[in-house]
User: Fold Glycerate kinase from Oceanispirochaeta crateris.
Amino acid sequence: MKVVIASDSYKGSNTSIKVAAAIERGIKKVDPSLDVVKLPVADGGEGLVQALVPEEDKWVYVNVTGPMGKQVKAEYALYNEDTAVIEMASASGLPLVTDSVKDPRKATTFGTGELIKDALDRGCKTILIGIGGSATNDGGCGMARALGVKFLDASGQEVDAVGGNLDSIKDVDLSGLLPSVKNATIKVACDVDNPLCGEQGASAIYGPQKGATPEMVKVLDANLKSLAELMKSKTGQDMAEVPGAGAAGGLGFGLMAFCGGVLEKGIDLVLDSVGFDASLEGADLVITGEGRIDGQSVRGKVPVGIAARAKKKNLPVLVIAGDIGPGISNLYEYGIDAVMSTVNKAMPLKEALERSTELLEDAAERAFRMIKIGMDIKA
Assistant:
């Protein structure tokens, strides 16, 4: 029996490949003869670099401006001699911000722009950037500033364009944008399909986890709308409704509007890169997962992307997740056949994270024992 394991990372506890290894150990406790294929995958958020470039000697480390203005050590990888793979979360991610200072009104993507600039300065012609896991809500303006774009107020003075003051921007000077940006191909791996503004937009859906109160969400959303209208008048293009424009606090929008980036479904881009479809030949079961699965997972997350491809070959799909949120019944319409939680008793989040590897292995064993029962009944 051949099993393909392709899971996202479990944020805060395990990388994609470590998750796959734990699942393999669990299912082989039930059947040691299993033929297991493990693939590291990501959807554009945390784990993209490791999925596409697991060789750490190809990683580049850079000191950049973190989301709240302090210097942080970030990394990206060289996929080949002229392609860089970047995770915006490495420079501007939520894990870099403590709860006590979370404030999406002040957070910036400037460090992400510094990573892009470093890659371009090294001669990269293609930038593949994953934009999940942000602490920001600045519409990508910080990133653009690092690449030479200026944001001006009504008096022509430059604005430190962060989420809380985007409404003060009255003009955008694109003349200083680095020529290397204009000459590069920028592919944006999105893990969600949210528009920039509105009830499903960046601020409303993701602002609260970044520290936004309901009142902040209203202000942030209005500010992003103001930015979008200004850029529409500058470029003649309305990019606010493009699926993924709202990813990473509007960085998806910013990469399109300021850098000519093209948004792609992150999971599809990664699956093509790691040869996922070929790995399904002769398979009997696909196991995938992520740290938390809920109704929002249909908007571009790893398990749904995996299931869509597996179903083309009529393969059953099992999801093993750290936490199961509301709305998962909808996922069964997207090719997922069953969902198993790693948590085997009531426990604090801290304990669940600390025991993540052990719990993954246990959940995989439990799930596969159920699968074997089903196989025996069918036989």
Remarks:
- The first strand starts at residue 2 and ends at 5.
- The chain has two domains: 2-39+276-378, 48-267.
- Residues 2-39+276-378 form a domain with the Rossmann fold fold (CATH 3.40.50.10350).
